[in-house]
Amino acid sequence: MDQVAKKAVVIREVWEGNLEFEFSLIRSALKSHSCISIDTEFPGTVIPDMKNRKFFDLNPEETYSQMKANVDASKLIQLGLTLSDHCGNLPDFGWGACFVWQFNFREFDVEKDLQNFSSIKLLKQNGIDFSANKTYGVRSEDFARLFRGCFGPNCTWVTFHGGYDFGYLIKALTNSDLPRDLGTFSNLLSHCFGNSMYDVKAMMEPLGLRGGLESLAEYFNLVRVAGKSHQAGSDSLLTMQLFMKVKQWCVYRDYSTVLIPCMPYGLNLEVNRRVEV
């Protein structure tokens, strides 16, 4: 990312009071920065697998069923959004810094709602203020209205192990539970986001590289340039940094098969369009 090396990166906190203005900035940025990485923070796994199976023991339909159960039963806390051009440059609007967005949602009530207590403890330790979210946070219906009017069919979407990220986003956009089966979810995902979707964790598999976002970023000598881990804005930025690095790495080594769009990691349905390189 050329600009990351040259300029400070500012994470723009989005609340109900500045939601309209921040979406106006995003709409402006999308004219030249149509590659979008997302990350979400949510209350963790609240409905465990009844058979106590590990993630790698599940087939795509089972993975989706488990994800659906958890997304349906819980509420979104944060969503991070990083916009980039296809060279890895972030929008700066001529203001002397680059920008990333972090949406804070109000629906989750830490005192009442279903949650994984270990996950909530981790989010608190990394700076999420649940009281502020509840008081000043974005309403999901307002976010969905503005989001739907913002992004076009030519966008490229990037996640890291992104089933839950897209799951919570689809739930917010439709104001309903997720579809009953993986096939319907796949069709809805394509309808809402097109077929240019990349999951960096899935891209790592053919290269024999495994691990979490932090460890894989370390492997490629990337550093977190803004915010903290387990905050959605910072994690969406690191996801974009990693995507751009892996894309560059694969082009240099002619690993073109890694650059094929795909469903989120674990859901394993490919679409047939290559990334712009």
Automatic annotation (TrEMBL):
A Pfam family annotated for this chain is CAF1
Q: Which UniProt keywords apply?
A: Cytoplasm, Exonuclease, Hydrolase, Metal-binding, Nuclease, Nucleus, RNA-binding, Transcription, Transcription regulation
Primary localisation category: cytoplasm
Q: By its UniProt entry, which Gene3D superfamilies does this protein fall under?
A: Ribonuclease H-like superfamily/Ribonuclease H
Question: Recorded E.C. number(s)?
Answer: 3.1.13.4
Query: Where found in the cell?
Result: Cytoplasm; Nucleus
Q: Name one GO cellular component term.
A: cytoplasm
Enzyme class label = hydrolase
What terms describe the molecular function in GO for this protein? metal ion binding; poly(A)-specific ribonuclease activity; RNA binding
Cofactor dependence is on: a divalent metal cation
Give yes or no: UniProt keyword Metal-binding: yes
Q: Which reaction does it catalyse?
A: Exonucleolytic cleavage of poly(A) to 5'-AMP
Role this protein plays: Ubiquitous transcription factor required for a diverse set of processes. It is a component of the CCR4 complex involved in the control of gene expression.
Q: How does it assemble?
A: Component of the CCR4-NOT complex, at least composed of CRR4 and CAF1 proteins.
Q: Which family does it belong to?
A: Belongs to the CAF1 family.
Q: What is this protein called?
A: poly(A)-specific ribonuclease
Source organism per UniProt: Heracleum sosnowskyi
